[in-house]
Amino acid sequence: VIAIYQAFETADEPITLGLGNDAIWQRFWDALGDPDYAARPEFSSNSARREKRAEIVEHIQSIIRTRPSAEWLE
User: Fold this and answer.
1) What does the alpha-carbon distance between residue 71 and residue 74 come to, in Å, rounded to a whole number?
2) Domain hosting residue 53, numbered range
3) For the chain, how many structural domains are there in total?
4) Average pLDDT for 2-23
């Protein structure tokens, strides 16, 4: 089971994110300008991220909702 695979609300419409492996997880946070978040020990594997899923989803949603979908999909 992938820890993060769902729709998130942007400023105008939802987009779906699938952070299916460690490399994608790191690239996602690099793209958001927060590589330190990805590197936190409690998020070191998909299994660990599943345990912290609610916290991660809340954090991602707080960021994603700040811009329209077109900006995220560039």
Assistant:
1) 6
2) 4-72
3) 1
4) 96
